[in-house]
UniProtKB/TrEMBL annotation:
<dbReference type="Pfam" id="PF08264">
    <property type="entry name" value="Anticodon_1"/>
</dbReference>
<keyword id="KW-0648">Protein biosynthesis</keyword>
<keyword id="KW-0067">ATP-binding</keyword>
<keyword id="KW-0547">Nucleotide-binding</keyword>
<keyword id="KW-0436">Ligase</keyword>
<comment type="similarity">
    <text>Belongs to the class-I aminoacyl-tRNA synthetase family.</text>
</comment>
<dbReference type="GO" id="GO:0006429">
    <property type="term" value="P:leucyl-tRNA aminoacylation"/>
</dbReference>
<dbReference type="InterPro" id="IPR009080">
    <property type="entry name" value="tRNAsynth_Ia_anticodon-bd"/>
</dbReference>
<dbReference type="GO" id="GO:0004823">
    <property type="term" value="F:leucine-tRNA ligase activity"/>
</dbReference>
<feature type="domain" description="Methionyl/Valyl/Leucyl/Isoleucyl-tRNA synthetase anticodon-binding">
    <location>
        <begin position="25"/>
        <end position="103"/>
    </location>
</feature>
<dbReference type="GO" id="GO:0005524">
    <property type="term" value="F:ATP binding"/>
</dbReference>
<keyword id="KW-0030">Aminoacyl-tRNA synthetase</keyword>
<dbReference type="InterPro" id="IPR004493">
    <property type="entry name" value="Leu-tRNA-synth_Ia_arc/euk"/>
</dbReference>
<dbReference type="InterPro" id="IPR013155">
    <property type="entry name" value="M/V/L/I-tRNA-synth_anticd-bd"/>
</dbReference>
<protein>
    <recommendedName>
        <fullName>Methionyl/Valyl/Leucyl/Isoleucyl-tRNA synthetase anticodon-binding domain-containing protein</fullName>
    </recommendedName>
</protein>
Length: 160
């Protein structure tokens, strides 16, 4: 993951936390990883962050490169969906709080709602049922795991 990807991940996390604030330990872990990554480019700044802000012993240059796991693509897709949903919910909330443009032109009062009074529920199905499950079964039957593709002949047959 590159520098800008790491920054984007932090920004997404900050956005999803909203006014609740970010997790302190996770922010420190982010700072640790970021400091190790920028050490070859900005060694003096990295040493400053390592010792003064992170309060770590020794030098960042001897700390080693940060380790990571293979990316979980399913989790990445779920996160993308969740981030898009958060943006949509915030837009809907903003629209509700501000009211329509017509109401604003007529001088309608905008009432502020305290963050503690805002509640959002997200329901997640663990499995599909009915026609959705049937469609997924059909797609699964024509999917070739060796080539990671759908069988073109079967797909053409189903679409005709």
């Amino acid at each position: 993951m590159g520098f800008y990807d790491l920054q984007a991940a932090r920004d997404e996390y900050r956005l999803s936390c909203g006014n609740g604030g970010m997790n302190h330990d996770l922010v420190l872990t982010f700072m640790d990883v970021q400091t190790r990554l920028i050490e070859p480019i900005c060694p003096h700044f990295a040493e400053y962050v390592w010792r003064k802000l992170l309060k770590k012993e020794g030098c960042v240059v001897t700390a080693g490169w940060p380790a990571s796991n293979e990316p979980d693509l399913v989790l990445k897709g779920a996160n993308k969906y969740l981030q898009d949903s958060i943006v949509l919910m915030r837009k809907l909330l903003q629209k509700q709080l501000l009211g329509s443009k017509k109401a604003a032109k007529k001088g309608a009062q905008v009432t502020a709602v305290a963050d503690s009074n805002l509640i959002g529920l997200v329901y997640v199905n663990e499995q599909f049922d009915g026609w959705r499950a049937h469609c997924l079964q059909i797609l699964q039957s024509i999917f070739d795991e060796q080539t990671s593709c759908f069988s073109p002949l079967m797909l053409r047959y189903l679409l005709n």
